Amino acid sequence: MSVDTVLDIVAAGCLIAGALLCLAAGVALVRFPDLLSRMHASAKPQVLGLLLVLVGCGLRLRTGVDITTLVLVGLFQLATAPVAAHMVGRAAYPDEQIRTDLLLTDELAAHIDRITQDRQRGAAPT
Amino acid sequence: MSAESTVTQETIEQPNPPLTPRDRRRNKVTAVIGLIVIWVLLWGTLSWANILSGLVVALIVLAVFPLPPVKFSGRVRLLPSLRFVLRFCYDLVVASAEIAWLALRFGHTPRSAIIAVPLRVTSDLNLTLTAEALSLVPGSLILEVDRSTGTLYVHVINVRSREEVERFRRSVLELEARIVNAIGSPEERRRLAEPAPNTPSTAADVEGAAR
C-alpha cells in the first residue's frame, strides 16, 4: 500500500468522524433541556468535529497553501468558540431560559448583581 | 489609565500591575510577529513580499486597535507547555465524546450546576487562558468572570452529586496549575503551592438549589 493510499484512508476516517461529531452536536442542540446545556453542545463536539474535518481536508489536499489556511481556520475556531459560548451564556444567565430545577447548585446567584455593577462602573469612564 | 484605578490596583495585591516600557515594547514586538505569521499563513507562501506587506498591515492594525496591557511575566517552558497541549487534546476528545453520548441517550435529562472557582493567579492573561481552555474541556462552560477577585463562574453539565461538583472544582484548579506551570512567572508558580483560597460560603448554594 502506498503512502498516498494510507493518507487517503486516514483522511476519510477523520472526515467521517468529524461529520459524526457535528451530527451529535446538532442532535444535542435539539435534545438538551436548557440554553446552558446547549452551549456545551455547540462549544465542544462541534469544535472537535471541525478540527477533524480540517485534518481530513489537509491530509487529502497536501499542498502548503491549503494547509496554512486550514491551520488558521482551526486556530481561530479554538480561540473564538469559547468566547461565543460565554457571551451567549452571559446574556442568558439572569433570565428564565435556564432550568433552575436542574441545577444542583448555583454559586453565581449571590454574586451576579455585584459583578454587573462592577462592570458598569468599570465601563463608564472610558 | 485614571489615577483612581492606579490606586485601587496598588491596594489589592496587584494582580495586574502597570506595565514598564520594556514590557510594552516586548508586547508590541510579540503582537507584530504574531500578526505577520497570521498574514503569511493566510497567503500560504513564505516570501519577502508577504513578510513586508504583513509588517505594514501589522503596524496599521496595532495603531488602529491598540492592545490592552497584558502582563506576561513568565517565559514559555517547553515541557510543561507540551504537557498542557497533550492533556488539552485528550480533554477535548473526552469532552466531545461525553456530550455526544449525552445527546444520544434517551430518557435521561442531564443535571448541571453553576460553581464558583476562585483562581490563585488572578492576572488577566491567566484568567483568559484558563477560561478559554476550560470552555473546551469536559463538562464545563464559562458563564461569568469576576475580574476583581479572579473568580470564574463555571456551568458544569452532567453532575450527579455534591462530591462530583467538588471533584470538578479541583480539576479546574489543576487545569490552572498546568497553564501557570507552562507560562507563568516563578512568583506565580509559588502562589500555586500555597493552599487554595476559601471557596464561597455555602449559603449561596442553598439559595440556588432551593429555587
TrEMBL record, chain A:
Keywords: Membrane, Transmembrane, Transmembrane helix. The keyword Transmembrane helix applies. It comes from the Bacteria. One of its GO terms (molecular function) is sodium:proton antiporter activity. The chain crosses the membrane at residues 6-30, 67-89. InterPro entries: PhaG_MnhG_YufB. Coiled coil: none annotated. The keyword Membrane applies. Belongs to the CPA3 antiporters (TC 2.A.63) subunit G family. This is Cation:proton antiporter. It comes from Micromonospora rosaria. The lineage of its organism: Bacteria, Bacillati, Actinomycetota, Actinomycetes, Micromonosporales.
